[in-house]
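hey so i finally got around to running the thing on that chain from the lab meeting. sorry it took forever, my laptop kept dying and i had to restart like 3 times. anyway pasting the input first so we r on the same page abt which one it is
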Amino acid sequence: ELRQMRPDWAFESECDRSDGHSGFILADMKKWTLEQTDEHYRKFYVELIGLAGAKFYIGVSYTNVAWWAAYMRPYRWSHQFLDNPRMTA
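ok and heres what got predicted. didnt touch it at all, straight out
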């Protein structure tokens, strides 16, 4: 939806590169292969570094990565949670 509203923005998303798996389910990890586990951690760290280091972060608060990244950001004013605009880390 945000991409449609801002077609001139350059979006970078690890979800676009994923295997179609959406979200993280802890119970599923025991079934993962070594390659799937490696891919999960690669995606996690890429997202974490990208979100924490971006000039401004626009996201949602209901993911674990969102909170990790929000607390790693140098300025508390430099991110916005769309699902709760008043919420800051």
